Amino acid sequence: QVQLVESGGGLVRAGDSLRLSCAASGSIFSSNVMGWYRQAPGKQRELVAAISSGGTNYVDSVKGRFTISRDNAKNTVYLQMNNLKPEDTAVYYCNLHFIGRSFWGQGTQVTVSS
Questions:
Q1: DSSP run (H or E) holding 33
Q2: pLDDT at residue 100, as a whole number
Q3: What would the pLDDT profile of 11-44 be if each residue is shown by its tens digit?
Q4: In the chain, % of residues over pLDDT 70
Q5: Distance between CA atoms of 19 and 93, rounded to whole angstroms?
C-alpha cells in the first residue's frame, strides 16, 4: 500500500508564500511521477505541477510563481508557492503515479485572501 501525507496549507494574504509538502510511504516504484493538483469549488481538478526524472511541468497560471521539487531519499515532493493570488484558493492534492497506478493524498486547503 502507498500512503501520501500532505502538509503546509493555510490561510494567507495575496502576495504571501506557502510551501506544501507531501511524504509518500509504502511500496513505491523508483521510476514515478509526483505532482500537485488542485480543485476549487465548482471547478474540475487540475494539474498544477509535476516532477519526474524527465523534468518538471506547470500549468500556465502558476509559471514563474510556483516551484515543484522533490527529495528522492525521503520520497517527498514540495510545492513552493510565491506571490499567491486569490484565484489560487483551492484544495491541493498530492499525486503519485507509476506503472499505471495512481495514488492521492487527502488534500490540504489553501485560501488566499485579497
A1: strand 33-39
A2: 87
A3: 999 999 999 999 999 887 777 899 999 999 999 9
A4: 100
A5: 13
CA atoms of 79 and 21, how far apart (whole Å):
7
Dihedral over Cα of 85, 82, 46, 27: its sign? negative
Beta-carbon contacts of 42 under 8 Å, excluding residues fewer than 6 positions away, are none
Look at residues 90, 92, 85 and name the one whose alpha carbon lies nearest to residue 114.
Answer: 85
Q: How far is CA 103 from CA 1, 46, 53, 88, 106, in A?
A: 10, 15, 18, 23, 10
Contact predicate 66/48, CB 8 Å:
yes
What is the distance between the alpha carbons of residues 103 and 27, in angstroms, rounded to a whole number?
Answer: 12
